[in-house]
Fold this sequence. Notes:
By secondary structure, this protein is an alpha/beta fold. Helix content is 39%, strand content 16%.
Amino acid sequence: MAERAILLLVEGEVVEPKLLNHFYNLYGIHNIRIVAYKTNLYALYHRLKKDYADQHGDIDYAAIDVPLFLNDYFQLEEPNKLNRLDFSDILLIFDFDPQDPSYTSEKLLEMLHNFSNSTDIGKQLITAHRLKLDSLVPQMMSNSEKHLQLCIKQCNHLVQFNQMWVVNTSLLHFADEYGELPY
């Protein structure tokens, strides 16, 4: 039997797969399967609420099988179908997106609480992207100072959520925008 892979369900099609492939390659981990959901965490939440509603209209997390859900969502056919037995771990990696009209802290905390075990239905991880710098930190700072202040603000803001893992992709975006890192 082949070694079981790690399933990474990510929001975007370009940045997240690029970053995660690089990260896992650094550690010699090559048995990963990255699937881009192509929409945000709150759209996923509403889809799960539609597809896995219990008699009260709440999400029945015990009924969720992420690979089967993705097969249905993307209408995957053999040999591209996903099977839970092929994966040792499942990670759901999505942006924080507090500006989204569907965002509520209750939805976010519910997802984090229920997607809390990578070897069960999956572990939810939240990314914090570099937001518009000028709206968060003073204009007179250099770009590297703004970036540092932004990272501090992101961490301070997100620390209020218990059990939240943060993957900060702002360095990748900074490099994309300015052609270099501030260090």
